Amino acid sequence: MKNYSKYVPFLRRAAMAAGVAVLLSACAGPNPRDPYEGFNRAMFQFNDTVDQVALKPAATAYKAVLPTFVQTGVNNFFGNLSDVWSAVNNLLQGKGEAGMSDVTRVTLNSTFGLLGLLDIASEAGLQKHNEDFGQTLGRWGVPSGPYLMLPLLGPSTVRDTSALPLDISGDVWRYKEPLYIRNIGTATRVVDQRSNLLDASTLLEDAALDRYEFIRDGFLQRRESKIFDGESNPRKRQPKQAELDAAPDGMETSAPVSSATAPKELNSEPPAATNASL
């Protein structure tokens, strides 16, 4: 009799994938940008609970206890590390000037800025960029796909989620040894990023009627803006001159996309952990 035990792990993974597919199909909704709204709202509630119970209190204590210059140093240090991956992605996107600017930032801040604790590059006029591989894929023409709310990581899209493994690999801090120092630094980084959003999240909690929709719409518009550096998507169809000539006076051939529901960018880099309460 044949031994089928070696197929058990494969069957388990297949069953798990099928279960996730069924769950997402059951949660499908009418919004074409958010077809898995039921699933996403459940993840939003989960992230919000984690944030309210653990992350937000830790960020509040962090901001209240540590001196401002220490918080600034922590933020600058990890921001300097993120400039390395930003440089790579800017170069991959064909933005050579921005990429070399990021390389110069890392060089200056890592040397004269005491390993990045001081952001002297910004004071010297070198603009900070926040680029990831999801933006690079978008720049290459890969569509964003549906909106996804990831457990603990917060808002994303199918495209950005597929880019996460490379973004994680591109994080310089991921290779820090020993392990306990890396873990302490990672936790500190998350709490520091969350502390930067305390005031904005409180304002959002008071103002937004449906925080889920507010965050979703703002995130999607902000991502497209970041991919094209604040410019309109050049791949969107523009009306031909003949269509403009044929249109009645005072009317456009296509309605512009409204940005009234988009919040202003709260932070140049989203938290590495849950931001469901924002």
Give the CA-based shape.
globular
**Helix content percent band:** 55-70%
Count of all domains? 1
Number of strands: 2
Largest sheet: 2 strands, antiparallel
**Segments where pLDDT lies below 50 for 5+ residues?**
17-28, 237-244, 246-278
Radius of gyration: 22 Å
Main sheet: strand order: 1-2
- Strand coverage percent: under 5%
Element pattern in H and E = HHHHHHEEHHHHH
Distance between the termini: 58 Å
The average pLDDT is 81
Class by alpha and beta content: mainly alpha
Q: Counting H and I runs of at least 4 residues, what is the number of helices?
A: 11
Describe it for me?
It comes from Rugamonas rubra. Residues 1-28 form the signal peptide. The chain is mostly helical and 278 residues long. The protein has one domain. It is 58% helix and 3% strand. It contains eleven helices and two strands; from the N terminus they run ααααααββααααα. The protein has a two-stranded antiparallel sheet with strand order 1-2. The termini are far apart. The relative contact order is 0.13.
Question: What's the arrangement of secondary structure elements?
Answer:
Layout: H1 8-26, H2 37-65, H3 68-92, H4 96-111, H5 120-123, H6 133-139, E1 147-150, E2 154-157, H7 158-169, H8 179-195, H9 198-207, H10 211-227, H11 241-246
Antiparallel strand pairs: 1-2
